[in-house]
Every structure is written in structure tokens, then in C-alpha cells.
Amino acid sequence: MSQTVDRALSILPLLAEGPADLGQVADRLDVHKSTALRLLRTLHEHGLVYRQSDQRYRLGARLIALAQEAMENLDIREIAHPHLVRLNEQCGHTVHLAVYEENEVLYIDKVESRYPVRMYSRIGKPVAITVAGVAKLLLADLPEAERRALSDKLEYPMYTARSTPNAPAFLRELEKVREQGWATDLGGHEESINCVAAPIRGADGRVVAAMSVSAPNVVVTADELLTLLPLVRRTADAISGEYSGRTPVKEASS
């Protein structure tokens, strides 16, 4: 029975590459065509594969619907929280998790610093979208046309001398973030606060959330905070692996 299940499940990755005929399926499974046909018929009955008019098989709508439903029911905050707590225990600084919704970037989780100097950020509160590291990551992942349209609509308050001054500068920063795969806010919102941020990706590689470590420069300098970037990125990768259902990434360690 386990071999039959294994063979049936092996058909799905093959069809994810594109439609295949009975012979191709049999060859991939290294079985007789009659065996492959029985497996395909069973999958077809459950809506997991579909036989086209040209007699080739492709993934069925039921499988796609199940995948979509599963993704919609995933709670990124629930998955990420233990990782955020572990990171906070390792570095001691404030850890945030943020998502992009309806033209706003919102904090959806926060683990407080162990140090007496605390940040004013709150869960459910929008971030400073033109300067925050998490915002840069989330917006940098948007299609270019959408990035440009959004940049034209935004206001660019000069919170500090390091704030992003205008749309062209913002777009350049987003392009840089896309290329390097991480982001910072080094005194762009508050002169005394720095942060490093990393993206959390879904199964399709798109950024679904972003996380950051933030600290005031009276506790740690910007250069010292940047040394935590590898740890932050490993944590984000671990969350991405769990969220997307890939083989779990090894837990982050210092």
C-alpha cells in the first residue's frame, strides 16, 4: 500500500512540470502502463489530475483549490512567533514581524527587547512605509509597475536627515533591496533607532512577510547591529521553510 501511495504522489510533481501522457508517467515511475493508468484513474476520480482531450494528463482543479485553501488558512504569525522569540533570546533586541495589506505595512507581532530602552511600535500599527526596513522588503517584491504607481502616491516625510526624500530615491532603494535580499533602516525614522530586516517567502518565492531586529544606538551601534544580519536572515529562512512546507530549515543559532 505504501508503495502505491508513493507512486501516486510521485505523479503530481511530474504533472506540475506540464501535461504528460500515459507513457511518460509510466517511464517516470518505472512501471507498466497498466499500473500507471490505474494510479492516474484514482487521482482523476479525486479531482487531483485531469485528462485532456489530447489524452495527456495535467494537475486537476481540485488539487489547486486545496493548495489555495491551505495557503489561505496558514497563519504566518503563529508559524513565525516561536522563531521570533528564539531570535530575541539570542540577541536581546526588539523583533518585529510585518505584512503588506491594502497599501499599508502593518506590524502583526513584536517581541520586546530585554533592555530597559523600549520602542514605541505596536502590533496593528502601520509602519513608516518610506523608511522602515520591513516595508522596503515588502514593497520591493511588488511588480515594477505597481512599485512605481505606489511610489507616486506616497508622501515622503523627512523624519530625520536620513529619511527617503522622494519617489526616485525610494525606487532606487527598493531596487537595491531586491538585489541584495535584505534591508535596513539606519536612523531613517528615528535618529537613535536602527534596524536590519529580512524577507519571509512563500512556496512561490514571493515575499509574504518581513521581520526585523531593531535597537537604539545607546544599546548597540549600527555597525554592531549589522553583524546580526546573518542570524536574522537564517531565522527568516527557517520561517519561510516552515510556512511554505519545504523541508524545515535548520534552526537559527548564534
TrEMBL record:
Which Pfam families does this one have? HTH_IclR, IclR_C
Instruction: List the PROSITE patterns.
Output: HTH_ICLR, ICLR_ED
**Chain ranges of the HTH iclR-type domain:** 2-61
- Kindly give the SMART domains that the UniProt entry links to this protein: HTH_ICLR (SM00346)
Xref: Gene3D superfamilies:
3.30.450.40, Winged helix-like DNA-binding domain superfamily/Winged helix DNA-binding domain
**Keywords per UniProt:** DNA-binding, Transcription, Transcription regulation
Q: Which residues cross the membrane?
A: none
Top-level taxon in the UniProt lineage: Bacteria
Q: Where is the IclR-ED domain?
A: 62-245
The UniProt entry, under InterPro entries, shows: GAF-like_dom_sf (IPR029016), HTH_MetabolicPath_Reg (IPR050707), Tscrpt_reg_IclR_C (IPR014757), Tscrpt_reg_IclR_N (IPR005471), WH-like_DNA-bd_sf (IPR036388), WH_DNA-bd_sf (IPR036390)
Q: What is this protein called?
A: IclR family transcriptional regulator
**Species of origin:** Streptomyces hokutonensis
